[in-house]
Amino acid sequence: MNIHIKRLLRPTFWKIVAAIILTLGLYSIYLRFTGGLAAVTNLNDHFPWGLWIGFDILCGVGMAAGGFTLCAIVYIFNIKKFKPIIRPTILTAFLGYLLVILALLIDLGRPWAIWHAIIMWNPRSVMFEVAWCVMLYTTVLFLEFSPVVLEKFRAEKLLKIIRGITIPLVAIGILLSTLHQSSLGALYLIVPTKMHPLWYSINLPWFFYLSAIGVGCAMIIFESYLSSKAFKKNLEFELVSDVGKWIVVVMSTYLTWRFMDLILNDKLSLLFVDSIETYLFWLEIVLGAIIPVILLAIPKIRLNRAGLFVSACFVIGGFLLNRLNVSVTSLQGFSHVSYFPSIYEIIVTLFLVTLGVIIFNLAVQNLPVYEKTEEQILVEFEIITDDDLKVQEAK
Amino acid sequence: MNRKAFLIDITECVGCGACYEACKEQNHLPQTSDDPLRDFLSDKTYTIVEQRGDYFVRRMCQHCEEPTCVSVCPVGAFTKTEIGAVLYDESKCLGCRYCMQACPFQIPRYEWGSLTPRVQKCIMCFDRVKEGNLPACAEACPTGATLFGDRNEMIEIARQRIAENPDKYYQHIYGLEEVGGTSVLYLSPVPFEELGFNTKLLKTALPNFTHDALSKIPSLVSVGGVLLTGFYWLTNRKNEIAKEKFEQQKNQRGN
Ligand code: SF4
Ligand code: SF4
Ligand code: SF4
Question: Which long-range contacts (CB under 8 A, 24 or more apart) does A68-74 make?
């Protein structure tokens, strides 16, 4: 009896929180579109990009990196045992991109002109590349996710077409993601004198790319942990532990490269300067890279459900801090103004995150995101073909 | 028409603010301050005169030779005209504000409170100059501290001045080479950093920084495509061999 009440109450509490956030978020967006950016943001002429760019866009795109990472693992490297978690991961990436577009529509000064990038070209601009990557990759994610919806509505013909182009679709998705993740770093190549030297590097696109793969892996772990909790799908854990190993490889490469970059550019002394930038740099590196690499290198921790989850959280936390450091911390010194997001900027950000979680839950409850019979999973696990299954069924 | 430029000689400027007022009038900008020396650049103020100790320093868009704002705008809302003026077209702009983020001189200003916000900055009085007139500020300047003319001529005058009066001038023409050169040149009696100029700027034009990254895209895509296909083929082949074996075994068992 007790359990029942608890079960009923717990979601209700979160529902209330979500409702409050959504209402406040909508109100902030209303203010934004009636009073302009000045009415809701702390942005100014010296600090034109704030939390919405730093978190909603840079972090949003990064967190969607699980999508292309897992697609590469399953379809290109043909490690099929990961297939059971591919749908939820693609769903996350797809929602991530949709929310990024929504964030853009709120942040852009003239959102109705967003489509201009399609006809007014300036291929010299990194932002142009970013715009095209967002458009194309969102389309690819839509197509990659569409089988889930098509299955639900039994649109067999369309399903067949989409299934037929899975591999090229996945390949295009990986290329686009590579371009997009790295181009977000390349956006900052143009400000060599404005950016704090601890972050500015000609290798920024690579750092963005590598850390995106790292956080992509971490997101795979994070999501399968949560979904195993929420939806009682337990089979993923054994697979997911392997992902921890790759994080060690990716993040230690990333770490080495970043320190090599500092050494080669004579910036080592900056690491010991007493300044807020130095502390945030260390926080980002220690939290987001050093600690999880050490943790995940220890098999005992990696093979432990909680250990794996906590390590993934470190990677994600460090990643978020990195993107905010690049987009906010590293630019504050030069602009001589300190920017801190307004309450409205924070609310809109929470609004987008909440919206994402709600849509994800709705999709999982109503679409065959996780629904797969034991046999179907076997098909992907072992190397049994669909035909075998049919033969079995016929018997 | 030849490439034009301003030559601003800080030693000659008396801080009268005539340029500031003329600019406001010419561009129909509202009054923002009683004292030109205390105003700052904004969406309603394209040029200011700053007091720095004993000196007065005009500031405005540098009209770079290879403008960062032009290169970063995704939709090409900024253009560098033949005469040198860097112009903005609001009908293209998305409002991403990358131009503001990227400008090495922190020049573009935004109409933050507007629902149809524009990026604003000095436009070198393009319409006047096109017709052979001086920009409003240069015409208004009573002392000749703001000169305007062909860029080559301005450079000549600047060179001559610092060569003939080495005691009066700090030996540098700001804007001649900074970020690949600009269409606003400054002469100063003291080192430029003392007057708040950014002297850490490189001589290379900033767009080159992103050009390197962007030019790698085609090869990245083709190499990536080949690699992906290769990997796919390899790993798929491996699985297929495994599958064949599996079937063989199954058949044997079946027999
Ligand atoms: S100073 Fe800034 S706004 Fe002016 S042309 Fe140069 S980059 Fe563009
Ligand atoms: S704000 Fe407008 S002009 Fe500036 S870069 Fe973006 S689209 Fe171009
Ligand atoms: S009008 Fe000439 S002298 Fe007067 S403030 Fe402007 S530049 Fe200086």
Answer: A68/A93, A68/A173, A68/A174, A68/A177, A68/A178, A68/A216, A69/A213, A69/A216, A69/A217, A69/A220, A70/A216, A70/A220, A71/A144, A71/A170, A71/A173, A71/A174, A72/A170, A72/A174, A72/B228
Distance of residue A245 Cα from the nearest chain B Cα, in angstroms: 20
Beta carbon of B99 within 6 Å of any ligand 2 atom: yes
ipTM for the whole complex: 0.87
Dist CA A212 CA A167 (whole Å) = 22
Whose tokens are 């866009």? That residue is A57
pLDDT tens sequence across A266-325:
888 889 988 899 999 999 999 999 999 999 999 889 888 889 999 999 999 999 999 999
**Residue A87, both tokens:** 């749908």
A119 vs A117: CA distance, rounded Å: 6
Please tell me the distance between residue B83's alpha carbon and the centre of ligand 1 in angstroms.
Answer: 15
Collect all residues with Cβ–Cβ distance below 8 Å to A186 and sequence separation of at least 6.
Answer: A126, A129, A204, A205, A208, B210, B213, B214
Beta bridge partners of B57: B50
Give the CB-side neighbour count of residue A344, counting CA atoms within 13 A. 19
Nearest CB among B98, B114, B115 relative to A127 is that of B98
* A381: contact with B, CB 8 A cutoff: no
Ligand nearest to the CA of B47: 3
Distance B85 CA to ligand 1 centre (A): 10
**Residue range of the domain that includes A270:** 2-394
Q: How many residues are recorded in chain B?
A: 255
Task: Provide the token pair at A266.
Answer: 């004579």
The CA-based diameter of chain B, rounded to the nearest angstrom, is: 107
Q: How confident is the model at residue A225 (pLDDT cuts 50, 70, 90)?
A: confident
Nearest residue, CB atoms, A48 vs list B110, B200, B217: B110
Q: How many Cα neighbours within 13 Å face the side chain of A366? A: 9
Q: How far is A111 from chain B (nearest CA, A)?
A: 6
SS3 B142: coil
Give the count of domains, chain A: 1
User: Alpha-carbon distance A280 to B61, whole Å?
Assistant: 34
Give DSSP secondary structure letters for A81-149: GGGGGHHHHHHHHHHHHHHHHHHHHHHSSSGGGTTHHHHS--TT-HHHHHHHHHHHHHHHHHHHHHHHH
Residues in B closer than 8 angstroms to A124, CB to CB, are: 71, 207, 210-211, 214
- Closest chain A C-alpha to B67 CA, distance in angstroms: 11
| Tens digits of residue pLDDT in A52-83 | 999 999 999 998 998 999 899 888 888 877 78
Length of chain A: 395
User: In this structure, what CATH number is given to the domain that contains residue A263?
Assistant: 1.20.1630.10
User: Which chain B residues have a beta carbon less than 8 Å from that of A41?
Assistant: 112
Q: Is B116 helix (H, G, I), strand (E, B) or coil?
A: coil
- When CB atoms are compared, the residue of A78, A121, A175 closest to B224 is A175
Cβ pair B225:A46 closer than 8 A: no
Is B108's C-beta closer than 6 angstroms to any atom of ligand 1? yes
**Ligand in closest contact with the CA of B139:** 3
SS3 of residue A371 by DSSP: coil
